[in-house]
Specification:
Strand content: 15-25%
CATH architecture of one domain: 2-Layer Sandwich
Oligomer: single chain
Number of helices: 4
CATH class of one domain: Alpha Beta
Number of strands: 5
Order of helices and strands: HEEHEHEHE
Strand order of the largest sheet: 3-2-1-4-5
Low-confidence stretches: none
Radius of gyration: 29 Å
CATH topology of one domain: Nucleotidyltransferase, domain 5
Largest sheet: 5 strands, mixed
Helix content: 25-40%
Amino acid sequence: MRKHSKHLDFEINLIPCIDLLSVCICFLLLTAVWLNVGSMNVKQAVGGQSVAETEKKPVLWVLMGTDGELNLNIQDSIRVPKNLSKLKLTGLDGKSNTSELQKVLEQIMTVEPALKTALIQPQAQSAYEDIIDLMDAFRKKGLVDLGVAPL
């Protein structure tokens, strides 16, 4: 038997490899631009510092109940009387009563003008629309530090 010698001259086609790398570079550049545009500066709303460094600011906690009821609880405030510090607002037709909430917020803001933080605790069945409506109502009354507590 005779051994066949292998032919050692062969060509490698590099054009498909270069095409693939150029497409990957394009995707890399596009995602880098999107990440830069889509980023925002987020600070931790509550906590992050030691207890001694944290000054006590009044905080409004809103627990969203079933059928649109809202339980308002104001913490770390000396000025707010007991009848306003813990309130329960009933809902209308399964949604929260924003007109009643506006009135209550107006009373609270006249008593405690330093109140700037509101934290919302939704239920698992709460609609996003109701949460956004609450946040809009708080923004209108001057509460600028808003947050949604996890379920």
